[in-house]
Design brief:
Elements lengths: L1 H31 L6 H34 L3 H4 L1 H28 L24 H12 L4 H4 L2 E11 L5 E11 L3 H17 L5 H38 L4 H35 L3 H7 L1 H10 L2 H15 L4 H14 L2 H17 L6 H16 L7 H12 L7 H33 L1 H36 L1
Antiparallel strand pairs: 1-2
Helix pairs in contact: 1-8, 2-7, 2-8, 2-16, 4-9, 4-13, 4-14, 4-15, 4-17, 5-7, 5-15, 7-15, 8-17, 9-14, 9-17, 11-12, 11-17, 12-13, 12-17, 13-17, 14-15, 14-16, 14-17, 15-16
């Protein structure tokens, strides 16, 4: 009860900060900034800058601990095929959501307006143009397997193309790997996934390490909660400073409106077409009935804005209303609440390309793939707490070298979109239970036979002991 009150209070404070910052930003932009220096905008943004620095500070421990504990909690030996099918389902739906978001944002192009948006403090921004698609994809795989995991936490290698001239006057392109600052998040996540999988395969030997990582995860969650309580202050000043520095508010509001339409459209397609299609393809059942039985969980997800907080209601709906085996639901739902974030992957993929479009940054095909891959991996590390996606959004933007300044603008709509993302995440977990149960029917029947056999053996043991006692008593007589 106390946690629910705290979450509601945080939501109200965040909502007030969004509208308050928007109002103050418009007032400063219209009435103060034309007669003052840009220092007004810089001072307005400063408390929000501290929020962004806090978020960047917790990225590494949050993602590493969350991924390892999420995957490490899967007992691969005992779960067998059930665990494997569940993980494949998680990965498949998350990738599909990310790809869907990339396709929609590339078609709709919500960040492309009638003119380029300029605001105070914006510098000329561009991606590394001295590269091509093939080099970008190769850099992606190089980053996934870093030669030094410690170095990957603060830097990464990228290919640069340099035009050279030979002595005879002809030109050629020279490729070289340059070390650049910024966390190699893909490498860190891949390393964490490998660690989590190995821990799940050797739970007894790795139990001490798992306890330490779980403690780190709990500690990081508490730090994130503290940062979230400061976030209304930071959001208020971030939004006010961002809007105060803009030259064309109408254009930006139009672009944000198109972003909301793009995200909601993608979530609707994934929610009503992609996920039900997967459900029907494997179960041959009517998804509308399944959705109707999940309405209490969906309403709770929309209200609490947290897939973890919705978990008890989700378990009740899938077990009592949709007749899912407890052995399936008690595994799929808790793990899915941690690592299955379809809505988050879709939103972060769309938001990254939106920010690039607003800044006029052109991404080649390889850079788009890197964005989608990073958004997918980031979704695995997104904790099931309200607004945790904002933390991983900072991670994705850093991974693809996009500016962080537009995050403050995304705050104005994130509180609204996050509730629809949470509903998508919850229904994805619930449908996954049905798919896993359908594909693992034989394993469940085998588990039932083993249980019946064990119960029969346990029941026969007292009877055998009673017969032995009777035989011994008869021999004495």
């Amino acid at each position: 009860m106390l946690i629910r009150v705290q979450n509601n209070l945080l939501f109200v404070l965040t909502l007030l900060a969004v509208f308050g910052g928007l109002i103050l930003g418009v007032i400063v932009q219209q009435c103060v900034r034309p007669y003052s220096t840009d220092m007004v905008v810089v001072l307005l943004k400063f408390p929000g800058e501290l929020l962004l620095r806090m978020l960047k500070c917790v990225i590494l421990p949050l993602v590493v601990a969350s991924v390892i504990t999420g995957l490490g909690s899967i007992n691969a030996k005992s779960c067998g095929k059930i665990g494997g099918v569940a993980v494949i389902y998680y990965v498949t739906t998350t990738v599909m959501a990310s790809v869907l978001g990339l396709v929609l944002v590339s078609i709709i192009r919500p960040g492309v307006g009638s003119q380029n948006i300029k605001y105070t403090g914006q510098s000329d921004l561009s991606m590394n143009e001295n590269t091509n698609t093939l080099d970008t994809i190769m850099d992606l795989f190089r980053g996934a397997f870093p030669d030094n995991i410690v170095q990957a936490t603060f830097g990464k290698h990228a290919t640069e193309l340099t035009n050279k001239t030979r002595k005879d006057g002809t030109t050629y392109i020279e490729r070289s790997l340059k070390f650049k600052g910024g966390m190699n998040m893909i490498g860190v996540i891949v390393f964490s996934i490998v660690c989590g999988v190995i821990i799940s395969l050797h739970p007894r030997e790795c139990e001490p390490l798992m306890k330490v990582i779980q403690a780190v995860n709990d500690l990081t969650m508490r730090i994130v909660q503290l940062i979230l309580w400061y976030s209304p202050v930071g959001i208020f000043f971030l939004i006010s400073g961002q809007f105060a520095g803009m030259e064309d508010l109408g254009e930006m509001m139009a672009q944000l409106g198109m972003l909301v339409i793009t995200v909601l459209g993608g979530l609707a397609i994934h929610f009503f077409i992609v996920l039900p299609g997967i459900f029907f393809a494997f179960t041959r059942k009517n998804p509308l009935i399944y959705y109707y039985n999940m309405l209490p969980a969906l309403a709770t997800a929309f209200g609490t804005d947290s897939s973890s907080a919705t978990m008890p209601v989700t378990l009740q709906c899938v077990e009592e209303r949709n007749n899912i085996d407890r052995r399936i639901s008690r595994f799929v739902i808790p793990v899915g609440a941690t690592i299955n974030m379809d809505g988050t992957a879709l939103y972060e993929a769309v938001a990254c390309l939106f920010i690039a479009q607003v800044h006029g940054i052109s991404l080649n095909f390889g850079q788009v793939i890197v964005t989608g891959m990073t958004a997918t991996l980031a979704a695995v590390g997104a904790a099931g707490i309200p607004s945790a996606g904002l933390v991983t959004m900072v991670m994705v933007l850093n991974a693809v070298n996009l500016p962080l300044d537009m995050i403050s603008v995304l705050f104005t709509i994130d509180w609204f979109l996050d509730r629809f993302r949470t509903m998508t995440n919850v229904i994805g977990d619930a449908l996954g239970c049905a798919v896993v149960q359908q594909l693992c029917t034989e394993e469940l029947m085998e588990m039932n036979r083993e249980r019946d056999l064990q119960e029969a053996e346990e029941g026969a043991a007292p009877l055998m002991q009673q017969k032995d006692i009777e035989m011994q008593a008869g021999s004495r007589m």
